[in-house]
Structure formats: structure tokens, C-alpha cells
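Fold this sequence, please.
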Amino acid sequence: MIDIKTSRAYWDVAAETYDHDFPETLIGTLQREQVWRQLDRVFHPGQRILELNCGTGLDAMHLAKRGVQVLACDISPRMIELANRRMTSSSVRSRVELRVLPIQDLHVLGDELVDGTFSNFSGLNCVKDLSLVSENLARILRPGSRVLACMIGRFYAWEIVWYLAQANPKKAFRRFRRSGTGGFNKTSQVEVYLHTVAEITRMFAPRFRLRGHKGIGIALPPCYAERRFSHLSAAIRALAKLDRLLAVVPLFRTMGDCVLLEFERVGS
């Protein structure tokens, strides 16, 4: 098992090219916009929200511009440094508090209550036992509070076809493995765990109940393939519209690059 120190070192390196590799791509932007639609529906101005694995602060800034207070945390000091740089020149800086904090150390927040939590683009896939995350979140979330978790999908047709076309079956079917190192990144210094929706739901129970889930990036090709499709931006945007239609269809909603789950805190 890769420890927190090693994971932090990996993400410190990844931070240097993170925006270029994903958020600044057209495909990455379209996927993030799908997640933002859910964030805007669930979280409201005046609330204080905890963001896990905040990266370079794009999601925190989006919510802050809507009047939401955000406690944004990440395992990587470099990610937090870049997020702070992004916020410094923004008019919403006062609405965002940045902390270096691994997901596994949420217990240090104690009884610091928040109105909701979200984790975007697979941060929770770096945690083997989500029941511990659930336990820690239950301490700081009021009954009725929501948790949005965007996690790696177990079956992504685009990826299978893409790598089979390159005669690379190991990568084509990598999501069928329960866990592994690297694979979804440029180096092999981070460990990911792939869970089904049913497994995630069980690990969040009984403190949280699943309200629903939807696919992110079902029809869209992977962002690492964007250069091959750079001349087809209109077609990519059309696929994003199809994505929104397929996102809630039972047969397709677990077949995206990611799956966005919405949980509700239950009990007292």
C-alpha cells in the first residue's frame, strides 16, 4: 500500500501540469461543467461546504462566485499553493479557506460543522476504505446535508476501444481490476481503488443514503485523447449534449469515465 507521504509527493509533481492535462482541455471542461450543474443544484449561497482533493481550486472558485463558503483541502501542498495563487487575484478570496489535509485525516476537523461535502474527479478513489471517510464526515455534517462524490467509473467503453486500437489490452481493461498503482496517471506513484456504486453505497451506510447517481463522460472520449479530436470541437460539444441525456439512464449511467453519486446524511 502506498502511504500518504508517497501520495503527497506524487500529487506535488502532478500539480505542475494538472491544469494543462485536464481542466484546460475541452473534454475536461465539458466534464467539469456537468459536475458543476449538480453542485449548483445541491449547494446554495450562504452555506459552508467542505471540498476534498480541491486540486488547483477551480471548483472552490466556482462555488465561491455563487456565494458559497468553501473549506478546500488537498493532500498536496503544491496543489494548495497553486490554488492560493488562483484565489489571490480573485474577488472571492475571502470565501475560500485552503488547507493541506489528506482525506484520511478528516478526523482532525473535530466537530467543525459544514453544510455539505464534495469530492471531484476521483480523489476518493485514492482511499481504500470509504467507511472511515463516511464516519468522519458524519461527525461534521448535519442531518439532511449532502455529499457529492465524483469517482472513476468501472466500465468506460471509450477507453476500451481506444487502447484496443493501440493493441494495449492491459490498459483497455484496467478498470476491471479492483485496484492498482498508476494507470490513470503519468507515473506509477499513486494507488487507486475501483468500487461499484453498490459497494460505495454500502461503505457510506448507515450514516448516508444514496439519493441518486449519474454518469460523467459517457459519450465523450477521454481527455488524454483530445489531441486526436482537436479539429472536431463541434462534434465533441455535440457528444457532451448526448452525455447529459444518457447521464441518468439506468443502463448507461454507470458507464462513464466517472460516476457522480449524491448521498444524504441521515440520523442524528
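Residues 183-188 have pLDDT under 50 and may be disordered. The chain has one domain: 4-155+194-265.
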